[in-house]
Amino acid sequence: MFKRILNIALGLMLTFAGSIVYGQGASCVEMEPICTDVGISFVAGVDGEAEAGNDYGCLGSWPSPSWYYLEIAVGGDIEMELFADNDIDFIIWGPFDDLADAISNCGTLGGVESPIVDCSYSGVAYETPEITGCVAGEVYILLITNFSGVIQEVTLGKLGGDAETDCDIIVVPPCVSDAGTFTIQKNGEFVASDEPIYLCAGDDF
User: Fold this and answer.
1) CA pair distance 145, 154, nearest whole angstrom
2) Model confidence over 60-115: pLDDT tens digits?
3) Which residues pair with 180 in a beta bridge?
């Protein structure tokens, strides 16, 4: 019987997918889902600007945009916290009937069919986005902008309120790992494996 043994001398490089990693939508139509129970954490870049045509409300500028949407599972009020090391801003539009409805309003956000719900252009690194009176099934668009112009980690989570967002819209990305260096032992003798062996969190070896 073959037994795979870690060869410490040659080293082992593994990347374990221990938590959900979220992408960030570079444009409105590419908005990514979020669940406030889990929250999001991403590295904000310093490139680009949100597309023209939308009403950005209180925002005096909209650099380095990150687009997200959330779907309400339990209605009520929900307060979130959004923070980074340097100045960030946000705006929320909605409600929309579903994701398709939200996407169809990209380019005309802020109009009658897609009103502004909350907005901040405060000059600080801690914000508290809020949605009040939301109803189960509604979808809202959240735009986060990196006003500071520096690469930084941005985090968002739920702060309070009785409303809940739908976490079922989150698709966990497949495990991403690096090849490890292994040997195979047979009858007490080591034989180099011909193919890389990949391990993800929870795998046995």
Assistant:
1) 10
2) 999 999 999 999 999 999 999 999 999 999 999 999 999 999 999 999 999 999 99
3) 197
* pLDDT, tens digit (0-9, with 9 covering 90-100), for 102-145: 999 999 999 999 999 999 999 999 999 999 999 999 999 999 99
Work out the end-to-end distance of the chain between its first and last CA atoms, rounded to an integer number of angstroms.
Answer: 14
CB atoms within 10 A of CB 155: 12
Written in H, E and C, the secondary structure of the chain is CCEEEECCCCCCCCCCCCCCCCCCECCHHHCEECCCCCCEEEEECCCCECCCCCCCCCCCCCECEEEEEEEEEECEEEEEEEECCCCCEEEEEEEECCHHHHHHCCCCCCCCCCCEEEEECCCCCEECCEEEEECCCCEEEEEEECCCCCCEEEEEEEEECCCEECHHHCCCCCCCCCEECEEEEECCEEEECCCCEECCCCCCC
* Contacts (Cβ under 8 Å, ≥6 apart) of 41: 22, 153, 154, 155, 156
Q: How far apart are CA 91 and CA 58, in angstroms?
A: 8
Cβ(80)–Cβ(38) under 8 Å?
A: no
The alpha carbon of 45 is separated from its chain's Cα centroid by a whole number of angstroms, namely 14
Both tokens of residue 17? 């997918």
Residue with tokens 């309070």: 160
